[in-house]
Specification:
The chain is of the alpha+beta class. Helices cover 33% and strands 30% of the residues. Among the domains are: 7-82 and 162-187 and 349-395, Nucleotidyltransferase, domain 5; 85-159, Dna Ligase, domain 1. The protein has twelve helices and 18 strands. The strands form five sheets. Strands 3-2-1-6-11 form a five-stranded mixed β-sheet, with helices on both faces. Strand 2 (16-25) and strand 3 form a beta hairpin. It is globular. The relative contact order is 0.16. The structure holds adenosine-5'-triphosphate and magnesium ion (MG).
Length: 401
Amino acid sequence: MMRDGGLLVVDVGTTKICALIGEERDGKLWVTGMGVSPALGLKRGSVVNIEEATQSIKSAIEKAQGQAKVDLTFVLTSVAGSHVKIQPGMGVVALKEKEVTSKDVEEVLASAQAVDISQDRILLHVIPQEFVVDQTRGITQPIGMTGVRLEAHVQLITAQRSHVQNLLRCFENLGLEVDGVVFQGLASAEAVLTSEEKDLGVLLIDFGGGTSDFVIYKEGVLKFAGSVPVGGELLTGDLAVCLRTTKGEAEKLKIERGICLRELVDEDETIEVPGIGNRPARSISKKLLAEILEERVRELLILIESEIKAFPKTYLTSGVVLTGGSALLPGLIYLCDQILDLPARIGYPERLPGLTEEIYHPQYATAVGMLLYAYQNLPQGMERPQKKEGLLGKLKKLLKI
Ligand SMILES: Nc1ncnc2c1ncn2[C@@H]1O[C@H](COP(=O)(O)OP(=O)(O)OP(=O)(O)O)[C@@H](O)[C@H]1O
Ligand SMILES: [Mg+2]
């Protein structure tokens, strides 16, 4: 049976594509379909082979649609990579009615976007930081306030136009219409951060396969975002080279025996490393494995620290939340404490009804966050879901692509 409406989100990661379908039941968001396929044609968050990436996306969507028994044509997808940047923007409007209306807010946000964004970049998100009515600063909700001048301070998240276009081409090839493109770091934050953490100040790191996206929240608002090209694939690559084994075996060793802090490993612990081709397996010290992983993870955390140096430790009262598949690497929490001097926890995505257990893994944080993002950004009072247009159809005006 075909059901109408529903949300289709597709997280295009470097190692896997995850499609999720959400539906509203009894006023709640349910996950009714999930499809995961290995990501071919992607490198460090970007499409490098359109044909391969298209097939991977197709396979994930088909699995999810088959499970949810729906056929949706509107999609929300995701982007990451070091081409994603954040920059401030500011807009001003004169108040006609002496009282701020929702139309004034719309206008001032539109004027805040009209900053110099170069032709080769595309605007993904406009994130209001504060409004100023006449001389009063720090306003989060200005509607109804009296004044003659409304100012908006925003952060704009932009991405390289060509990267986004290549991604959209894959969906176009499948006859699907993309309604919005979400920055992966922002989506993951939706799934794993609590509102207290967002209020008090927190750094979220989505330590994935090809990229590590990060965002900072304070006072409930996203303040900073970035992405560094270091992920679990580099760790696996390092192990394969240093231990002289195949990438497949290195990945297995990392997941089954990996630890990224040498001081947690006993001197005499050893592991078997299969050789390449017919070469015999070798026994190596587990400390060596930990040293290799620790080096790369240290490098990642130092890179992120240098990107967020404008934010003092005291700003991040809640510390760090680690998500993404690589967040499960034992020892990571200790390293965060050592290098970033911040307490860390692992971020599992919010438990949504429906396919609750299947999605409860840090590597699905982005996809779950995308569903929540799509659902929460529906305008208030809008009926949902509707025939044809579906929930995502409603988002068209809200998302910038
Ligand atoms: N238990 C584990 N311990 C260590 N690493 C793990 C574990 N489970 C998964 N990983 C690693 O997580 C990575 C995949 O994570 P994830 O699915 O979040 O990435 P992605 O979304 O495909 O990529 P990206 O977001 O970087 O584009 C792989 O490199 C994998 O080796
Ligand atoms: Mg990811």
